[in-house]
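Section: protein folds

Sequence with per-residue C-alpha cells
===
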Amino acid sequence: MKKVFSIILLLMIIFTSSNTATALQPLNYTNIFPQGQYLVSEKNGKLKPGKYEFSLITPNVVSYVYIIDKNNIERFSKRFNSEDIESKGKEDVSLFTAGTLLEGDTIIIYGKGEMYFNLIENQNQTKR
C-alpha cells in the first residue's frame, strides 16, 4: 500500500511542477515575433491596429524593425542592438513606442533577434 501511495504522490508532484513552468511564461507570448513580415489587420493580420510598444528580447543580436504603410511608404525604422540594452539599461533602450499601427500596415523584422510587441491602446478605443 505504501508503494502505491508513494507512486501516486510522485506522479502528482511531477505533474504539478510541470504546470508551474508554463505559468511563468509571459501572458501575451503570442506577441513574440522572429524575423519576418507581418500584416496589421483586424481580420487576417498577426497584429491588430493600435498603439504598440516593442522591445528586443534576444541577447547578443542586432535586429531592425521597419513599418511600411499600405501605400508602400516607409513610416518608421529602428535598429535594436542587444549590447546597447545591456550597457545602457533595459528601460532606456529596449522599449520603444512606435505610435499607432494602422489597418494595412506591414511590420518587417530583420535580424536574428525576436521582438516583443505589447499592445498599449487598441485603435477602436482611440476613435471614440
